[in-house]
Write a structure and sequence with these properties.
alpha+beta; 8-stranded antiparallel β-sheet; 5 helices
Length: 294
């Protein structure tokens, strides 16, 4: 979409992204994919369903309600890959990032539910977690791997992962926190900053594609600020990520298109006017472009 956008337009979006705390991406997985693409509802980031990763049927998401779906992986190379994840580089410029998600596993194994890839870092671990590894330990790495107090905090759990569990991972300067079901599991120091530039985001697997989650992930949300204890507690009781205090509305011009998505391509919200318009005259409406992540 809009391949002729200018560097000026891109820069005008990127600068404010790190200037305020916000929900910068959220995959609820409640809608069927467009082909093999699942698109986040905040910035329109396309995630490719690869190697058999799927979106479940209705009622198989975390809440079990009729409209709730989740992403599903397995024991192979299943994964969701967001290849234009440079969007997150600016969101992490303050060395602060929070990730919230629900996870249910058929059985724990050597798995990686998420990895923000920073190729300039040894191992590419910009912000990555095993939650948990096959030994029931959660390892949370940033800025590389795997020195305690530099890159990593970790802690063992006795959690039954065959039930839906809420996980929150927070990097706030040198501080790191890991929560399960709203309770603090571990906090510690990691002096290595989040590495950038970030190029890719993997959900449900690592960049090696050999560490798939044997189960489901739901409501994967990324925040450009440190979640508070209260925020995490609300998320763990089922509050939608966009309902937290301080999260900016995402359609302030009421045109049916997410603000952050519009600002990825244009310097202001006045350029795109409705989902039914075709701003770049390519035969796809703005709404179709959003759904396809293009």
């Amino acid at each position: 979409l809009f391949t002729a956008r200018s560097l000026t337009a891109a820069a005008s979006f990127l600068a404010p992204a790190a200037a305020h705390a916000d929900l910068v991406a959220w995959w609820s997985f409640d809608s069927p994919p467009s082909g093999s693409v699942v698109t986040d509802s905040r910035a329109g980031l396309p995630g490719q369903l690869l190697a058999g990763a799927t979106i479940t049927d209705p009622s198989q998401g975390r809440t079990g309600t009729a409209s709730d779906r989740a992403s599903r992986f397995g024991v192979g190379n299943q994964r969701i890959r967001v290849t234009n994840a440079g969007y997150f580089t600016d969101a992490t410029a303050a060395n602060t990032l929070s990730v919230s998600f629900w996870i249910r596993q058929n059985a724990i194994r050597n798995s990686t539910p998420l990895s923000f890839v920073a190729p300039a870092t040894p191992g590419g671990r910009g912000f990555q977690a095993h939650a948990p590894w096959s030994n029931n330990i959660i390892y949370f790495d940033t800025g590389g791997c795997c020195t305690n107090d530099v890159h990593r905090v970790f802690a063992g759990t006795s959690t039954d992962w065959t039930q839906w569990r809420h996980v929150a991972l927070i990097k706030d300067g040198d501080s790191k926190l890991v929560y399960i079901d709203g309770g603090l599991l571990v906090s510690g120091i990691s002096t290595a900053p989040i590495s950038f530039p970030i190029t890719d985001l993997f959900i449900g697997n690592s960049p090696t594609t050999t560490e798939a989650v044997n189960g489901d992930i739901d409501d994967f949300a990324v925040f450009s600020h440190a979640l508070s204890d209260t925020d995490v507690a609300q998320l763990a009781t089922g509050a939608p990520p966009d309902s937290l205090p301080g999260v900016n509305p995402n359609d302030t011009d009421s045109d049916g298109l997410p603000d952050l998505w519009e600002l990825r391509f244009y310097p202001s919200l006045t350029e795109l006017t409705s989902p039914s318009a075709d701003r770049d005259d390519d035969g796809l409406t703005n709404g179709s472009e959003l759904a396809l992540g293009t």
